[in-house]
Amino acid sequence: MLNSLLVKNYRNLENLEIPSLARVNLIVGKNNVGKSSLLEALYLYFTTNENFGTSLEVIRKILLDRDELFFEQKDFKNIETFSPIFTNRKIVYFDENKFIFIGESEKGGIVISPSKFYNVTGEDDNFKKRERIKNNEEFLNLAKQGMKIESEIRINGSGIAYTLNSGNYELNYFTPTNDLSLLANCKFLTTKTNSPELSKLWDEITLTNKEKYVIEALSLIEPIEGLSFIETTERPKIPLVKTKNNQRIPLKSMGDGINHILSIALNLVNCENGCFLIDEFENGLHYSVQTKLFEVIFSLAEKLNAQVFATTHSNDTLKAFSEVINNKKYQNQGKIIRLENKNGLIKHVEISDENLKLAMENDIEIR
Amino acid sequence: MTLKSGKNPNKILLVEGVDDFHVVCAILKKYQIPETFSVENTEGVEKLFEQIPTRLLQSEIQTLGILIGADTNLKKRWKQLKTKLPNLPEKPNPSGTIFTQGEIKVGIWLMPDNNLDGMLEDFICSLVPADDKLMPFVEETLQNLKDKKLQNFKEIHCSKAKIHTWLAWQKTPGTPLGLAITKKYLDEKNNKCLPFLEWLKNLFTK
Asked: Which of B1, B46, B54 to mutate to test the interface with A (most CBs of A within 10 A)?
């Protein structure tokens, strides 16, 4: 679990410090203050331990969700594919202060560093070594000498390399990527494309206790006895539920709310010892269900030792969250993270449980 | 229901009660002060104090005005404010205090005049026209009550009794404080009102 967070140069989060985090965190703030960017940064952080292919796939999903991946950018053929995730959409080489950093504190985290290398031939002709270019001056010098230079986007120790070819940096070799839906214990639920396929998530937990948790969550809206996914001619598989009267009906026929709850529950039970990220928590949910759903999330997160981050624009969601964290049972388990744009710099504003409660009681706008 | 007026949620004047709310709204209307800020009734002075820290965290807040009675002890009131607003100056400014807390402009007006103990009603009493013919009778009556040991209210509430008695004897008996300004019973052109208006202007329009 992350206890604090420092993000640097990730999209508009130039230098965002959040001194404390809880098990369940609700991110609020005006449009364009970087709520989704913060979720993306967390997604990168929690998945980077896997391997480089996974990180690339995570970046692909992030870019796809924002329509930032098209034409020549596909399959990372051009180094500029990466530019949207950097502050000001600009890849800056040689300057450590412009590298992306995501971690608990300065002490440790992931670093995404654009770097340039050249090949040195050693005394022994068979021995070739890559040298990192230190600054722009050295780069220009080497380029003048006609030296072959590679540019790399490095994530911690590994990188994807490009060679300059008639003005464009082109991919040297393809790095295989991984299927994210099977990725261990970090899930990102967005309102857009590419969310993990639900039937796959169900397969991961089938015949375990976690099945029960999912059905309990669905029963918040209507009592349900069983859930299954069935094959259709068209993918993906569709969820069917068994009702109290022994009827089999498609879950979709029960409305958007219950489907959103299924996504949340299935994703969360697959995040044991990991992290679950939800963009726009309130999507399709009536206020009366939100409090109960938060209770389910708080108790599951604790049971599974998972950390949860959700964004919202809804005052109802904030109110539901406030009710739950002011319940003794969940004390100190939840936290509001408010992002604010202060003269172009995105900052975090600390809001205590007490302040949240007062704001809700007196109708004070803190979103 | 909390009373709220005005359209700008980023500039707020907090008042402690329904009378304060209506008096402020009437004065604003009378002087045609543009609605560049909202007036909100916190329904009690304790609640007003309780709200201050959360108000400072309110999204996009720029200006926070606070209008409260000095009550029986102006110094104590100031100390209470200091616990919620660390940047509060040592003493109240006689023309209304204005300072910044973080990036937020904060203004304090202690009723009646940032100098004496008292409350809204003392401020309103000061707006009774100087040549008013009824007021001497009101004062005499209240003195009579006191002499005959019939004064049920606390000494601090004298001005309350005074202004409400005076209003009970007007053309429409029992006019509320806010309406009394609208109906011109009170002399809002009285220069006692001017420093307050000046403070509002400095706080919210500059």
From this structure: B54
